[in-house]
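TA notes, week 10

Several of you asked for a full example with nothing omitted. So below is the full record: structure tokens for the whole chain, then the designed sequence directly under it. When grading your own attempts, check the secondary structure regions first.
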């Protein structure tokens, strides 16, 4: 028996672990189905009234789009830029601007706005003006890195923005990251509804894989040393002691052991958070105009292993000021091999690439506010009773590099060491009201995977320009691979079209029936034929979030090549049905089913809880 219940509200609560090779192209069997073979594969149609027209999709063009925010020295938007004033460079070579326009929302200023409207936009005769009807603002709270006393301040700042500055055509979304990505509130214009979702974000003070947790542990370890009187040992000040005293040596080794665990946790958390941000950016791609993602996070050090080693050295050197060489050697040997691959630049590059492709700008806000080295993470530690507080700036500034990289790479801003968290939120809102959009066609032959640097110069003084700094010409197969992996990790973000799943089971087997509305198939016309490629993937996930088995539970590829008559016949039916029957071990699982239309890039996912007896 199989008990099956729809669990779309909990989608994303669990997904496969980081076994991304499972969705690599080598695991996909080369099955190619034609429309004429459907009946022989136990696929059937249910007749009904004529379905709706199949949606059409615009063909992608080789065009690089750049959002351009221009401000004067006082931070006010500059309304009168002209395309002849601009010089656009890619990899140092001048590019021909294909179009240049002003994206303007000044006509729909918020009714509750507290600031005065700016100057009127230029007329269409000076620069083309396109009215942007709606603004989209996403608040993403990274609870992995959130100090215990920062959650309340963050909620207050978000609430203040939504209640005072949200316009009648603005939409806001709330999402959180902690072990999983959760969409706490999809896009809405209802302020009260959004506020209730914000109130329900849980208070979870325990930190995990980040420098905040690491500094807590360092305080505990070296405070115990102080209690043993090691700091007052006169022999350590003579400068001729070749060996470290056992207490210092033990503390260094203990700190190194803890750092290994923190590094392992941090790698998992950063990988998950970056994948979540990339998937969220892709989810926003279909929305028009510039989208604004406000990331509220304390960040992560880009080279965590080096930062932790330096902090351990500095702490230990406080107790052995004349034995720095011995401390240095012991720290290096104790940390040998730990976290050598814990570098997050490549993951950040992937997030930035996804955001730029989706016209998403990231505004990062450090919720810790203004800090000095003596107070770093003091709120997290909840008391000043530890004898030796952090004296290093690294636990303050190193994680912020993560935030500034995301923002500068997507044309956003980062707000750090500022107790006014609402200032960063308000700036993101201001940038969304008016900006310039320019586009150019790069050279035809480019090496996939290479980063192309973008530069924009203005023949006018006193104007600051903000835009994304470049892009990666990503291999389409790599993009498809990443999207498929993310569809299993974050099912609720991949709902481009509807479909249903029915589940039943004989003993020890699992039967899955997929029902796809024919209007969900996106056909492209080529050479007199209408073509659509639909791929269907299924996987079982256990309670710990791990895959059951080493591969997909099932995979099917439907390759449709239809002439006009065949397409008309296909669209006479309401649903397309496909069935799979596979062996499954007894237990309770989540069944994740992903559909991908390879030609259009559209994807859809659903999750069901199943019990196999």
């Amino acid at each position: 028996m199989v008990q099956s219940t729809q669990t779309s509200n909990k989608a994303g609560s669990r997904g496969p672990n980081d076994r991304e090779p499972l969705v690599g192209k080598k695991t996909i069997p080369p099955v190619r189905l034609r429309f004429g073979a459907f009946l022989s594969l136990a696929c059937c149609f249910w007749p009904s009234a004529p379905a709706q027209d199949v949606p059409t999709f615009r063909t992608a063009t080789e065009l690089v789009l750049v959002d351009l925010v221009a401000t004067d020295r006082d931070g006010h938007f500059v309304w009168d830029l002209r395309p002849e004033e601009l010089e656009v460079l890619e990899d140092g070579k001048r590019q021909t601007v294909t179009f240049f326009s002003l994206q303007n929302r000044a006509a729909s200023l918020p009714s509750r706005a507290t600031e005065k409207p700016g100057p009127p936009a230029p007329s269409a005769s000076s620069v083309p003006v396109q009215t942007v009807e709606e603004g989209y603002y996403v608040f993403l709270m990274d609870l992995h890195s959130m100090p215990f006393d920062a959650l309340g301040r963050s909620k207050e700042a978000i609430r203040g923005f939504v209640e005072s500055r949200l316009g009648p055509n603005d939409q806001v979304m709330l999402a959180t990251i902690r072990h999983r990505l959760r969409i706490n509130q999809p896009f809405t214009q209802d302020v009260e509804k959004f506020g209730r979702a914000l109130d329900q974000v849980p208070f979870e003070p325990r930190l995990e894989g980040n420098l905040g947790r690491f500094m807590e542990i360092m305080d505990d370890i070296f405070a115990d040393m102080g209690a043993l009187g090691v700091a007052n040992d006169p022999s350590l000040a003579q400068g001729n002691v070749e060996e470290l005293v056992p207490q210092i040596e033990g503390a260094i080794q203990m700190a190194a052991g803890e750092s290994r665990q923190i590094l392992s946790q941090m790698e998992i958390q950063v990988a998950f958070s970056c994948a979540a941000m990339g998937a969220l950016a892709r989810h926003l791609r279909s929305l028009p105009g510039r989208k604004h993602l406000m990331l509220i996070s304390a960040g992560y050090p880009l080279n965590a292993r080096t930062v932790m080693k330096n902090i351990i050295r500095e702490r230990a050197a406080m107790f052995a000021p004349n034995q720095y060489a011995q401390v240095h050697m012991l720290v290096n040997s104790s940390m040998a091999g730990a976290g050598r691959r814990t570098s997050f630049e490549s993951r950040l590059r992937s997030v930035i690439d996804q955001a730029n492709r989706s016209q998403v700008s990231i505004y990062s806000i450090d919720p810790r506010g203004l800090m000095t080295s003596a107070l770093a993470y003091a709120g997290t530690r909840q008391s000043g009773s530890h004898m030796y507080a952090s004296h290093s700036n690294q636990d303050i500034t190193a994680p912020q590099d993560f935030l500034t990289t995301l923002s500068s790479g997507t044309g956003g801003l980062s707000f750090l060491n500022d107790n006014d968290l609402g200032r960063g939120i308000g700036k993101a809102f201001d940038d969304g009201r008016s900006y310039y959009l320019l586009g150019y066609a790069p050279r035809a032959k480019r090496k996939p995977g290479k980063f192309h640097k973008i530069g924009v110069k203005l023949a006018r003084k006193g104007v600051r320009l903000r835009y994304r700094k470049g892009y990666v010409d990503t291999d389409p197969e790599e993009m498809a691979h990443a999207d498929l992996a993310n569809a299993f990790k974050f099912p609720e973000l991949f709902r481009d079209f509807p479909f249903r799943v029915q589940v039943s089971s004989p003993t020890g087997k699992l039967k899955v029936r997929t029902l796809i509305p024919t209007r969900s198939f996106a056909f492209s016309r080529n050479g007199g034929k209408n073509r659509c490629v639909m791929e269907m993937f299924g996987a079982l996930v256990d309670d710990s979030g791990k895959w059951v088995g080493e591969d997909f539970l099932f995979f099917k590829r439907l390759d449709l090549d239809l002439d006009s008559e065949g397409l008309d016949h296909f669209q006479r039916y309401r649903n397309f049905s496909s069935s799979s029957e596979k062996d499954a071990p007894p237990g309770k699982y989540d069944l994740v089913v992903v559909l991908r239309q390879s030609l259009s890039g559209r994807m859809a996912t659903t999750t069901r809880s199943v019990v196999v007896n």
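Residues 139 and 472 are 26 Å apart (CA to CA). Use that as a sanity check on your answer.
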